[in-house]
Structures are given as structure tokens and as C-alpha cells.
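job 3f2a | input accepted
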Amino acid sequence: MFHFTLLLCACHERTPSPGPVGAQALPAMPGAQALPDPPAGAQGSPAAGMDLLGDACAAHEPYACGALGRELLAGRFVQADPERGTLLLRQACLGGADAACLAAGMR
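job 3f2a | predicted structure (107 res):
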């Protein structure tokens, strides 16, 4: 019991890390387009997140298309639309988003 208490205390006395690894700004990907700012008052809402994913997908960002496709299949933050969700997953896969390929059953 004594060793456990010392270990527990030692863990709580550590100083916090300065931040997550890689917290610096990342360079822009070649061909990436800047996303528009969300509408005023909509920041942080699921609807605003889905709108941003839709805007990024329309700007040909495959990972955004894949994320939006998965949400359309699941129907969590938007009304489920399996046909459009599958179409977006395939589009994302063809754009290079490997996780979308797996979700679409293409690989």
C-alpha cells in the first residue's frame, strides 16, 4: 500500500507539459484553399461544423468529404442520407483519403 501511495503522489507532483506535441502551426497543404469563417453566432454548434465540412468538401478537400460522408451515413449531426454519404465517401477515396475508402468498402 505504501508504494502505491508514493507512486500516486509522484504522478500528481509532475509539472504539466507546455502543450500538445506539434502545437505549432502546420504549413498549408499544396492546393489547399482557405476555408470561409463560420456565420456569426454559429461557432461551436454541430450545424456550423457540418456547414464547414460542406464548404471544405465543395473546395475539393477529400478528408472533409470523407468526414461529411460518415456523418451523413450515421445521421448524428445531420439527417441521415446514405446515398449522398456513400457518394461523398467514394469522392473522398478517389481524392486520397484512405479512411474514406475503408468506410465506403472500396479497399
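job 3f2a | The mean pLDDT is 75.
job 3f2a | closed
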